[in-house]
What does this fold into?
Amino acid sequence: MGETTNKLLAMAKKVGTEIPKRELDVLLATGEQQTVALLAIALQNLGIEAQSMTGFQSGFVTNKYHTNAKIKEINTEKVEEIVNSGKVAVVAGFQGIDEEGDITTLGRGGSDITAVGIAAHLGWDCEMYTTSECLYTVDPELYPEAKPIRAITYEEMMEIANLGADKIETRAVELAKKYNVKLFLGKSLETDKSKGTYIMSKEMIINENLLVEDMPITGMSIQDEVSIFTLRNVPADGKAVAECFRTLGELEINVDMISQQMAADGKCTVSFSCSKEQGDALQAELDGQEVFSDIIVDREGDLAMISLVGVGMATHSGVASKVFQVMAENDIRYYHITTSEISISVTVEMDQKLKAAIALCRAFRL
Amino acid sequence: MGETTNKLLAMAKKVGTEIPKRELDVLLATGEQQTVALLAIALQNLGIEAQSMTGFQSGFVTNKYHTNAKIKEINTEKVEEIVNSGKVAVVAGFQGIDEEGDITTLGRGGSDITAVGIAAHLGWDCEMYTTSECLYTVDPELYPEAKPIRAITYEEMMEIANLGADKIETRAVELAKKYNVKLFLGKSLETDKSKGTYIMSKEMIINENLLVEDMPITGMSIQDEVSIFTLRNVPADGKAVAECFRTLGELEINVDMISQQMAADGKCTVSFSCSKEQGDALQAELDGQEVFSDIIVDREGDLAMISLVGVGMATHSGVASKVFQVMAENDIRYYHITTSEISISVTVEMDQKLKAAIALCRAFRL
It folds into this structure.
């Protein structure tokens, strides 16, 4: 059903240049409704009792933000009733209704959120099946020696997902973490569970003996087409910086790395990164802003951000120094390094990406 | 969106040989959901405030007979609310939910029924727009001198709809009659209402001065591919006849004309007509029935049924005799004539259809 959403969008564009979000949700929700009906039909034809459910039937109550609604409440009685009667409940992902009964969709990653939401509410585990066998320490296309990850913590997964991996949506992992839902990612039709990846708390990983080795770094993710903005000569009263980040918020720009340094003259320098696409929107906006008139805006537009993620980082010292050392030994120029509790990210020129990634994979045995 | 239902059915057949009706309804209801979203988008792009509604939102509560559900209750508060706020309510036809919240569809003519149902509930008029300008006294393709019908009673319309005209579903007209809903059939984009056809009670027609002339016959409808069964040597105790019609009911065969005559030997002869397709199903069934062993079953398989309909028939004598006279004068053999309060139907060989129809049109000035 992969093409359904695009086809529906094309139909909408034929009848109007402005597509009201409420109606777009009514239209887009039909794709998942068709999918669940077809899956229920297929299951019943395999002799498995099954029943489909749309958003209003499965009890997903959301706020009113059409096309990007957030779940307010899940009334799972009907799902439980179906499952308790021995049937498979086939629940339409991505959709719900608001408190006035209008159809809403959950936006990007909405199907993951539906699945985790039900599991969280009922205290069940949640398994997700796609075309890839498991998560790897790094993209195997890039680095064929990449190792499969058997278990990863919620926090690491959120860092990796935020940093561009498309296996599972951050909002879904966040929900799983909040309610301690054991997640499993596996390949469709693969029955050997030892081939997939579990996502859970560090305690659960230890309890289930899934921690193979106490490695500081669990995985690497790479984001292409990153822009870095550097604002110089910024008044240090905080007003200009606040204004800048307000603008970023209004443009719905997700900033990945922020750093601020004081200069000798009492002014400061602020850097941050975002996707190249969002950077273009920001550039247009910044050019017209009064408050930025004295500030010098530099932008590096075509970078790659390589991130190393691992909860072990908090207890293993020397990760940052090892990154600096790898960069120096391989003669790779980097623009920015930032760290969080469990990650370290470095931006390099696009044409240095592969060299840097492989050097870091080797150094951290990914 | 005409092809949507067939495409959805084809998808369902790909995943299963048995298609459970509950899931078929979930699947088929998406077609109308897409249509109402697209129509609401189109209206808003024309500057007209509009809001789409699916079956569960518009308050159509039905019984549980999936794919052919009947309306139990219509809760029109939300439709009223939208309309009272100055918006167009774009309600998905053909669908509802049952009391457990399962999606149902209303079967053939379901969209007409949805429209009339809302109008009936709210005391509004109901207008339906298609590609044809109005109803005609007889199909203009067949008889180019056919006259437009400006107004027709519910009863006449039900006879004509039952007899094969496809302008509007009988169930919808029945509902309109029950609640005295003024119906209007017109052509899309035609703004001159005097070109369409009103369907209402005889009193309303008289009150609105729409009765042009006190004609006995309002219109003619023709049904092709009709079968007539004649059962001879049937015991007159009623048991065999009852059994036969029980079988017809089980096969969901709609019988159009029934007549029964006593023979001299205490046995009786029963005739009835149905569509050729249903006749084939019945034939197969009758061949295996014990109770029919002594009964002689004759079948004429390739007939056309011409029906004249008009409320004036009840007050104008001589309609039947005029029909007999037209048949005789034109040397047309007929198999069966039956009459109701407001209609008279005659079956002829398919190759005599046109000759008979034109002769009757001329005789009754249609």
In short: Chain B touches chain A through 36 residues (CB under 8 Å). Residues 4 and 31 of chain B are 6 Å apart (CA to CA).
